[in-house]
Amino acid sequence: MRRGLWLAVVSLAVVAGLIGWLGDPQAASAGPSGELTRQLAGNGITVTATLLKEQPESTAIKVALDTYFFNLVRYDVEELAILRDENGRTYPLIAVEQASSLKPRYREAVLRFEKVDSRAKTIELVVKGVAGVKERVFRWSTSQ
Fold this sequence. Notes:
Elements: H1 2-22, E1 27-28, E2 37-42, E3 45-52, E4 58-67, H2 77-80, E5 81-85, E6 90-91, E7 93-100, E8 106-114, E9 122-130, E10 133-141
Parallel strand pairs: 1-10
Antiparallel strand pairs: 2-3, 3-4, 4-8, 5-6, 5-9, 7-8, 9-10
């Protein structure tokens, strides 16, 4: 009886974990105060975005795609991302640095956008069209 109950609990935990990992994410903004890394998993691919602070001439965000199942070679990180503020103003991409494409299941790049307006209260990095997820939105308060 105990073994059966334990097996049922473990099975439920595994299923819940898979649902969360394969789910359809929409936005990531929660996290401890001051945390600059956001992560969203969906349809077998995890997208991680890290706001890089202390960038005087631009707004820089490190973006990584990671998966166990798929070949990510077809995704160019810089073509998937848009930076905007809470007023809908978008900021052009001015440089791509440290782009990594050597591993077929991992892609990474540092994206440098035009410096965000000092009056903006929040910024959002929108990553579109990865693994059938229309968009994944990563938010940061500019006061962090």
